[in-house]
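Following up on my earlier thread - several people asked me to post the actual chain instead of describing it. Fair enough. Here it is, all 396 residues.
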Amino acid sequence: MKIQPEFIDQQALIQAIRRDIHAHPELKFAEYRTAELVVQQLTNWGIKTHTGLANTGVVGIIEGELGLGKSIGLRADMDALPIHEKNTFEHASTHQGTMHACGHDGHTAMLLGAAHYFSTHRNFKGTIYLIFQPAEEGGGGARQMIQEGLFSLFPCDAVFGLHNWPGMPEGQFGAITGPTMASSNEFKISLKGKGAHAALPHNGADPILAVTQLAGALQSIITRNKSPIDTAVLSITQIHGGFTSNVIPDDAWLGGTVRTFNKSTLDLIETRLTEIAHGVAQTFNCQAEVEFERNYPALINHPAETAFAVKVIEETFGKEYVNPSMQPTMGSEDFAFMLEKVPGCYIFLGNGDGSHRLSGHGLGPCDLHNPSYDFNDSLLPIGSNYWVQLAKRFLE
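Reply from S.P.:
Thanks for posting it. Predicted structure:
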């Protein structure tokens, strides 16, 4: 793989930053130290910053020396996860119960690597906005930054994001046109019955029996209501009810998640879920209360920007570094909110099989959201090089 020498030369610096962030993880909307570190580095490199969007968000503004022109947004996420790290190497988390188990430390460091390059190479026309976003992990930080004026303060002609991808060969890129990551939605269905002695069930209305029947009935939405060619997942992840063996309780509930790529399919699932919940409840003389929350929309890559990103990868690193078998994932990502407002593309960068981890890593695989995960530092110059070439080419 061909990487510009500048990114090889700066790797030790960017790696040190990445490991420092990994050792000091912070949860959604509380990335104070991380944001301060980002601001300090950008300021030291002569890059203007704007702070305060979505509480801890940071935007770096790099203006070209050749005058006004187009503008491009490059986004990295900064937050960690509420996971207790099992790794014991030197840069393992110092905050018990909090860990960078998704690589956001690496994403932030790669974008800082691009910033370091542009601090001394501004021979371009236009503006680069470096978007360091908080609260990707369930907080909707992208949505909040937009609501607080991200794209009115920093208008972008296009916006791009990147995520490391364990299991994909190290340094390969995956790009998909159109639906790439699923929407994320949660539901909770509460069933209210009438409690009774377990030996006298006819005196009550059993919500436990109702909730178990409902669990199976909801899967009929996926198999019998939606079109077989529309991808969707409905997973029941919680069932709660009862407190002792000889009492039928008054209440029980179940909850879970729905993932789709298509809004009309999601509308259908929500409608049928509500209808089935009330129907099953009525069958067992219970009452149903349905809560359905739409968290993140599906992430839809724009065709022109995706083709452009792939071309930049091919010309920068070689065609062999574009993974031909990358498939959409039912995982979700709040960069989808940005792509609803501005055209752009979200790509994946192979994190390898985990062999990069230092001695002292946990026994588990190097998967995302895993207590034995660690970002592959070999990707730092690759990701920074990609960001720089993408921005330069776009602004040409």
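The radius of gyration is 24 Å. That should answer part of your original question.
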